[in-house]
Amino acid sequence: IARSFAFIQKRFPVMNFKWAYLILVVLFSSCGGSSDLVSNPPFKIVEANKKEMDKKGYSISFNTSALPRDIAFKSLYFGKRKAQVLWDDENTYYADFPLYTSDGEKVLSADMSEESNNPLPIMPVEVPHPLKENEALLHYSEGEETYYTIFEVQ
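Given the sequence above, the corresponding structure tokens read:
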């Protein structure tokens, strides 16, 4: 191997192989903390429901068993949409999925400057793991590690 490496260095003196080594080391040793899909999380989703929000979108609420102290809910994915998980009541959490970025009135006009203040629609996001139509993906952390779990929404 050393001879072939010396041959390559002689043939291509302009290339600096220290940079190539550095790039390879960074690529193979990146510690991006993978987020794993967990089928048996340290808590239980007791009930999950979807509620319409007066033609403005929908909300997913779910009840959990008692949570360990180091568990924190990050976000919820549902139907190619992502929302922050918020606390509602003891062991009850929710995530709102509005249709638009604000509740403002939509203006239709021949003058584009008047329409420029219309609320923008929420764009779909790429879900980290494939979901069925009635499933939600919960992103949570346990200490420093992050995980995903899938549950069914009624």
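Residues 22-34 have pLDDT under 50 and may be disordered. Try to locate this feature in the token string yourself.
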